[in-house]
Design a protein that fits this description.
It contains four helices and six strands; from the N terminus they run ββααααββββ. It is of the alpha+beta class. The chain has one domain: Hotdog Thioesterase (Thiol Ester Dehydrase, Chain A). It is elongated and about 60 Å long.
Length: 150
């Protein structure tokens, strides 16, 4: 796996990332604990059962992080200068323990960097999809990527 340089992308390029990941209770508990998020919906099975969802919800920040992590290998691995921002983040469906996730990425914009002639900006639309083919998380990510070496 390795990411692509700025000048190797075209608007409309789409990737179905090959890595899939089943979310475990340990993933959710460790992430919630490490980030000091004591939300009962994420860590208390009894409280979660009493909620409208009837079970523990996976921490949304973990969900977002997993989406980005699953996408890195084929997009920006080894070519990233910096992530410049995330926009239009939505989580239209909940994620539960045991859900299996996959990610897709599409290039929606390319721009030359005005301040760095050796780099360019790529805006990706990332989506995280569960085993029921439902989008559970989606965002736009703007990344500053290296150009191919001369």
């Amino acid at each position: 796996m390795s990411g692509r340089h700025y000048d190797e992308w075209q608007v409309g390029d789409r990737i179905e990332h090959p890595i899939r990941r089943t979310v475990t209770e340990t993933d959710n508990l460790l992430f919630s604990t490490m980030t000091h998020n004591p939300q009962p919906l994420h860590i208390d099975a009894e409280a979660a059962r009493a909620s409208e969802f009837g079970q523990i919800l996976v921490n949304g920040t973990f969900t977002f992080s997993l989406m980005i992590g699953l996408s890195v290998g084929e997009t920006t691995l080894g070519t990233l200068v910096a992530n410049l921002g995330y926009d239009k983040l939505v989580m239209p469906k909940p994620v539960f323990i045991g859900d299996t996730m996959r990610a897709t990425s599409e290039v929606v914009e390319l721009r030359d960097s005005k301040s760095r002639p050796t780099a360019g900006l790529v805006t990706f639309r990332h989506a995280l999809i569960n085993q029921r083919h439902e989008i559970v998380c989606q965002c736009l990510r703007t990344a500053l990527l290296q150009r191919r070496p001369a």
